[in-house]
Amino acid sequence: MNFGRVLLFAALLATPCVGLSQERPRRWQRRGEATAVPVTVFHATQSANLPTAETVAAGELLFEISHRFSPTLSSGPDTFWGLDGPVNNRLGLAVGVHDRVMLGITHSNLDRNLDLSTKVRMAEGTGGATQWMLGLMGGVAINPGPDAFGAFDSRSLQYYVQGILDLRVAEDLALGVVPSVLHNVDPLDSESQTSAGLGLHVQFYINEAVSVLGEWQFVESNSAPAFGRDAGSLGVEFETGGHFFKLLVSNSTRMNPSQFLAGAADSFDPDNWRFGFNITRVLTF
């Protein structure tokens, strides 16, 4: 064997190995800018009826269609357990004008209530294992349905404001607290009243796509005798591809904030439960 050829072959093998060892990155050296994990408490912008502090991104649209069936589940097969209707229907469209600001418009066929709202995600942060968000939502509603006054009569207008505190207290468990004030609780009442309320809601995320939720709205019982009872809802949420599907039972058939915040007509007894659903879709262009 030619000893020179052996040395040349060994040198060729060693050359790439030396090069690789010189290019190996140092483990202590940062390879890119650190990226903060965004705070996420609730995935959707609302529970069954109560808002969360979550907003859509700037330029995104949020489309909503929601129903609450008038017959109760306890009415049985005569109404196909409430599904034969009639229904209260709500259509909504919101736009993110900023990553923290969302403008919305919703219409309910109940008294043709038209609601214009603004929601602001004010702050968020972490404290140990807890994540939190703060938000504020307010709006004005027009009720042209009753024939007693015109659409822009002062008695037709309602105003509300809601504070929002979201807390993720465990990896899969989120809580929401929503104090509220509603002015002109019942437009048909000759005297405008202002009512304060407190909304509480909880959501347990079973996995990335399925969760269960419950909410309760405490209202001043004397503010609207026709419907001034606490409103509760129970449901399941399915999240997929920008859609949120919520299947619910509730004692309230009122959905727009100025109507829901006034309370329910019936107590939260299983005999008074109605079926309902919310469907929202985030649209990005």
Describe the structure.
- The structure is a single chain.
- By secondary structure, this protein is mainly β.
- It has a single domain, classed as monomeric porin ompg (Porin).
- Helix content is about 10%, strand content about 45%.
- It has two helices and twelve strands; from the N terminus they run H-E-E-E-E-E-E-E-E-E-E-E-H-E.
- It has a twelve-stranded antiparallel β-barrel.
- A hairpin with a 2-residue loop joins strand 10 and strand 11 (about 245-250).
- It starts with a helix and ends with a strand.
- Residues about 1-30 have low confidence and may be disordered.
Question: Descriptors for this entry?
Answer:
285 residues; mainly beta; Porin; 12-stranded antiparallel barrel; 12 strands; 9% helix; globular; disordered N terminus
CATH architectural category: Beta Barrel
Q: Which spans have pLDDT < 50 for at least 5 consecutive residues? A: 1-32
Proportion of residues in β-strands: over 45%
Helix- and strand-based class? mainly beta
Task: Kindly state the percentage of residues in helix.
Answer: under 10%
Under the CATH scheme, which class? Mainly Beta
- Major sheet attributes: 12 strands, antiparallel, barrel
Broad shape: globular
According to CATH, the fold-level topology is Porin
